[in-house]
Write a structure and sequence with these properties.
The chain is α/β, with parallel strands linked by helices. It has helices spanning 7-11, 33-36, 38-43, 49-63, 69-82, 88-102, 109-120, 133-142, 171-184, 201-205, 217-226, 239-244, 251-280; strands spanning 19-23, 124-132, 147-156, 159-166, 192-195, 209-213, 230-231. The chain is globular, with a radius of gyration of 21 Å.
Length: 281
């Protein structure tokens, strides 16, 4: 599929004080950030076999795009109860030790380039994710992003209580984005937002430059109805390799490359068909 971009997304002009809000899972990285750490959590005894099965099922639903608000609420309650009694420092240590293996290879090159472009244009970039703050913040650091909106759990004496302080999903993402805009005087009309999920449609609506990235069926329909740009990110690449190979795949270049690739493929196939027909004749 050819990438569709708007002139604004390609040139990223800096206008006033603005921000770019990025959903994380399937927008910036090609997997679920929360579920990616299931294996090391199991290895370190934080979760059992039954929890692994439940997490695997949630991962399948995630990949199929079946993450409606009811499913997300059940996942929230499951994860909140699951982490009851965990030590916060142990979770942070596991994330730090496994980040390079479990997350870095799955960062979309196109997303990393787009984040870089927004930062270079003078915008604040905010990662907005339903995953826990302890997971999202280190991922942001990999990308040079210091601002995150993520789920926060209640902590007492260095342990999770099993209660949720702030659940960064659906309408709550909008509340957090508007609060940041008010505190920092962002002009939302000149701000950007990127997401793959229909559950983030309300977040996309509040900015002047919404973009659907790898959209699920619901968001694809809304984007088509409202004329929002749609991007397809398809190149996960370790950040270390991306930096060594700069310039990486920018959004516009990726779109051009896909288009040229399709054209070359069609021309080659046409030549093959003509040669075959001549040989038969």
């Amino acid at each position: 599929m050819v990438h569709q971009t708007s002139p604004e997304a390609a040139t990223l002009p800096a206008v006033g004080r603005s921000a770019a809000f990025f959903d994380l899972d399937k927008t910036v990285i090609a997997k679920s950030s929360a579920l990616a750490f299931g294996r090391p959590f199991y290895r370190d005894g934080l979760i059992g076999r039954r929890d692994v099965v439940k997490s695997a099922y949630a991962q399948i639903m995630f990949r199929l795009g079946r993450t409606d608000e009811q499913t997300m609420a059940r996942t929230r309650d499951f994860l909140a109860d699951l982490c009851r009694g965990w030590r916060v420092d142990q979770v942070r240590q596991i994330v730090a030790e496994t980040l390079d293996e479990l997350i870095q290879p799955y960062v979309y090159a196109e997303a990393a380039e787009l984040i870089h472009d927004h930062l270079a244009a003078g915008r604040d970039v905010i990662l907005v994710s339903t995953s826990g703050d302890e997971m999202v913040r280190p991922i942001g650091a990999l990308l040079g992003v210091t601002d995150v909106v993520a789920t926060r759990m209640v902590v007492e004496d260095g342990h999770y209580t099993g209660e949720v302080e702030f659940y960064a999903a659906g309408p709550n993402k909008v509340v957090a984005a508007r609060q940041l805009a008010q505190e920092r005087a962002y002009d939302l009309a000149h701000s950007y937002a990127y997401s793959d999920s229909v559950t983030d449609a309300a977040l996309l609506e509040i900015v002047g430059h919404p973009t659907a990235v790898n959209p699920d069926r619901g968001l694809r329909r809304i984007a088509a109805e409202r004329g929002w740009p749609t991007l397809e990110f398809r190149h996960p690449i370790p950040l270390g390799r991306r930096l060594r190979q700069k310039p990486a795949i920018p959004v516009t270049a990726a779109a051009l490359g896909v288009g040229i690739g399709v054209a070359i493929g069609l021309l080659a196939y046409g030549k093959y068909r003509r040669a075959r027909a001549a040989a038969i004749a």
